[in-house]
Task: structure prediction
Amino acid sequence: MGIVPESGRGAAARVGAHLDASAAADPHTLRAHNLGIVMRMLRDHGSLTRKDIEQSTGLVAASVTNLLADLSGRRLVRDVRGGGAEARGRGRPRVMVEQVPDRCLALAVRIERTRVTAEVHSSAGVLLDSASRSVTLAWGQPGDVAHAVAGLVARAEGIAADHGGLLLACVVTVPGPVSHENRIADSVEFGWGHLELVELIRAAGVPSELPLEVINDSNAAALAEHFALPLPRPGVMLYVEASIAAGVGGGVIADGRILTGGRGFGGELGHVTVDWRGRPCHCGANGCLSAYIGPDALLTSARLVDHAQLAGRQAAMDEFRARLTRGEKRAVDVALRAGDILGAGMRSVYDVINPTTLVLGGYLAGMRRWIEPGIQMQLAPRTEKLAPVAVESGRLGRRAGLVGAARHGLLPLFDDPTLVPPAS
Result:
């Protein structure tokens, strides 16, 4: 999204897509847009000189100075000295601009069966705190989850106060689809259906002025893995992950945002149909991707069910990986077939989403060597005629969901930095 001139005819026609198309752009909107672009540049590059910003945006030096003064007045950016001539011992030191590392914070919360884990991240990508609370969940009941989340919010507010910062959002991740109204539609892992978790958390004491959102954990992980890719990042990215606890999930990232569809339930790549007359899936349908590359399906095909019953599914999956590494035929055949099946599912998605990159997470990342050939073979009839798809391994591992939740909560700041008031 390019810089919008803050004056001049035709400026409104060039305002970013996040604005209401039916509303004319006023000077404040144009300024917020330009401030957001500067903030996004600093987010993506860490630190820049004023000259870097001028050259990338096409703005004159005076305009860049004015924008940076505005951001500095909100304590969002600061000048730092170093590098360049100073490092060589001669001349004036180069002045860099960077985000204030602890000014704007977001709390990311992950709900699991026995524990609620939280991390406080800053807009500059600094992890400021990590904490957890034990919880008791009965099947189909939220138990004491809301009170645990409320306690973690209170802790985060204290950390923000200690740093003189602002807690901008709390984003809670859960397995299963979540509507745009923050209603957990169906969590197979917890037995939750149509649960109004936000209302429960508010009732537990979280203040109404703090933005509070619930999102799907795989969607959050997808966003984190997108930002972990090197620049320039793909415009559209698919993320598919598989774990022992939650099975197969995924997400779609378009232009740096989670694509959740009209009601919020998009991105469930684990339920792409690969055989409509095939194996039953826990979602109620037949032939879903999850039914073929989920942990139970892989362990059954690898003849490790007894191992899983004796030592647990994680130990059985570790044994499967060990057999893969040793090149044992059955394990390799199972992995190769999983690649074919995953590729078939992605072929169905290719013409709808047209991704440029597919990122593999969870245990799929460790199997990439064996499953990527099948993915590319299945995609070849389309990619050879149209455009290729790059396959990448996830970089963040188990923390991806928390990192992505924090990123999601901080997105409004990078759209409109004027949400943060001037520092007193």
